[in-house]
Design goal:
Alpha-Beta Plaits, 2 domains, eight-stranded mixed β-sheet, 9 helices
C-alpha cells in the first residue's frame, strides 16, 4: 500500500512548481484548491519519510546489536525494539492518511433543516437544531450566514438554510477540519421525544426534522447554463402566510434539466436573494452529480465514498431522560442539554471513527 506514496512525490513537486507561479494566484479559487492538495500531500510525505527513516534506523541498530551481542549490543537491541514500536505507530498514521477521502472534505458547508412529522412541534425542534449547529460552529471558530428561512407561527422553522464557513480563527489546516468534513455526518432524520409546548396533558410526543448537508460549491465546481434556468419572483411571506415585503423580492429558481427548485426570500433585495439561491443550487447540483457517479460505481467504491447511510433516522433526542443516542454508531450519553448547546464533538467523533474504520476495511479488501 505504501508504494503508492512514491507516485505522490511527483504530484507534490508539480504542485510546488504551480504555486510558485504568480499567475496562479490571480485565480483565488484555483489557488485555494492547489494549496489544500499541497498541504494534504505534504502531511502524507512527511509521515512516509519518517516511516522510511525509522526503517533505516532499525536496520542500523540491529546491525550494531549483532556485532557485540554480549556487550553494548543489548542496548542497541532494546533501541531497535523501541524504534520498531514507533514505526508501527507511524505506519498506522500513514495508512489512515492514504485512505481515500471525500474530495469535498476541505469545503465549507450549506446546511438545511426542515420540519417534518409533528407539525408545530417539529418546527420548534428544527429551530433547536439550528441553534445547536450555530453554537457548534461558534465553538469551532466557524462563521454562519443565514441564507433563507421560513418561520412557523410559534417561532420555529418550517425550513431554514445556513452557510457554514471556516475562518482564520478556526485554523483550518486541510486535515479534515473544514465544516463539510464534520457536518456531513449530521445529514439525516433527527427524532425528538418530549412534551410539546402545545400539549396540555403533559404527554411525551415524538416528532422529527430532517437535516441536509451540502458541500458549498464554487462556480468552478459546477457549470450552469443560464438557458437551463427558470427564474420566478414573488413577494416574501412570513408566519401564517402574511406578506412581509411589498415588493417582488423573493426568488425561485428552477433548474429545468434536473427539476431542482430553490427559493430564497430572506434578503430585501431581489438580486441578493438570487445570489443566495444560486449558491444553494450550485451545491445541490454538485451533490446530485456526485450521487449519480456513486450509483454507477462499484460496491467497493460506494463503501469508500458513502460509508454512512444519511437517509436513515440517525439520532434520537430524549428530553425526559436528557439522553441523546446515535443509531449509526451506538453512541449514547445523558447530557442532551450540553449537546443542544453545541457540544457535538463526541457525537461527531464517533461518526468519524466509524467512517474511518469502514474505509480502512475497504482498503484492506
Amino acid at each position: 500500500m505504501f508504494e503508492a506514496v512514491e507516485s505522490l512525490v511527483d504530484e507534490h513537486a508539480e504542485l510546488e512548481r504551480q504555486l510558485a507561479d504568480p499567475t496562479v494566484h490571480g485565480d483565488q479559487s484555483r489557488a485555494r484548491a492547489l494549496n489544500r492538495r499541497y498541504a494534504e500531500l505534504s502531511a502524507i510525505l512527511a509521515t512516509w519519510r519518517e516511516w522510511l527513516q525509522l526503517g533505516g534506523d532499525i536496520g542500523a541498530a540491529r546491525e550494531l546489536a549483532g556485532e557485540d551481542p554480549d556487550g553494548e549490543g543489548a542496548a542497541f537491541a532494546a533501541e531497535a525494539e523501541q524504534l520498531e514500536a514507533r514505526r508501527t505507530a507511524v505506519a498506522g498514521r500513514l495508512r489512515q492518511q492514504l485512505v481515500p477521502r471525500d474530495p469535498n472534505d476541505a469545503k465549507d458547508a450549506i446546511l438545511e433543516v426542515k420540519s417534518g412529522e409533528g407539525g408545530e412541534e417539529s418546527a420548534l425542534f428544527a429551530a433547536d437544531l439550528l441553534r445547536m449547529y450555530t453554537r457548534y460552529a461558534e465553538r469551532r471558530g466557524w462563521k454562519t450566514e443565514l441564507l433563507d428561512a421560513t418561520e412557523s407561527d410559534l417561532g420555529g422553522y418550517k425550513s431554514v438554510t445556513v452557510a457554514v464557513k471556516a475562518t482564520s480563527k478556526s485554523q483550518h489546516t486541510g486535515e479534515g477540519e473544514a465544516p463539510y468534513a464534520l457536518l456531513k455526518y449530521e445529514a439525516g432524520v433527527h427524532r425528538v421525544q418530549r412534551v410539546p409546548v402545545t400539549e396540555s396533558q403533559g404527554r411525551v410526543h415524538t416528532s422529527a426534522a430532517g437535516v441536509l448537508v451540502l458541500p458549498e460549491a464554487e462556480p468552478l465546481d459546477v457549470s450552469i447554463d443560464d438557458n437551463d434556468l427558470r427564474i420566478d419572483v414573488f413577494r416574501s411571506s412570513g408566519p401564517g402566510g402574511q406578506s412581509v415585503n411589498t415588493t417582488d423580492s423573493a426568488v425561485r429558481i428552477t433548474h429545468v434539466p434536473t427539476g431542482i427548485v430553490v427559493s430564497c426570500q430572506n434578503e430585501k433585495s431581489q438580486l441578493q436573494n438570487k445570489e443566495q439561491a444560486m449558491r444553494i443550487l450550485r451545491s445541490r447540483l454538485l451533490k446530485a452529480a456526485e450521487d449519480a457517479a456513486d450509483a454507477e460505481a462499484s460496491d467497493a467504491r460506494r463503501s469508500q465514498v458513502r460509508t454512512v447511510d444519511r437517509s436513515e433516522r440517525i439520532r434520537t433526542y430524549n428530553f425526559p431522560e436528557n439522553r441523546i443516542s446515535d443509531h449509526r454508531t451506538g453512541y449514547k450519553a445523558y447530557n442532551l442539554d450540553h449537546a443542544l448547546d453545541g457540544d457535538l464533538d463526541p457525537l461527531v467523533a464517533s461518526s468519524v471513527e466509524a467512517d474511518l474504520h469502514a474505509r480502512l476495511e475497504a482498503v484492506g479488501e
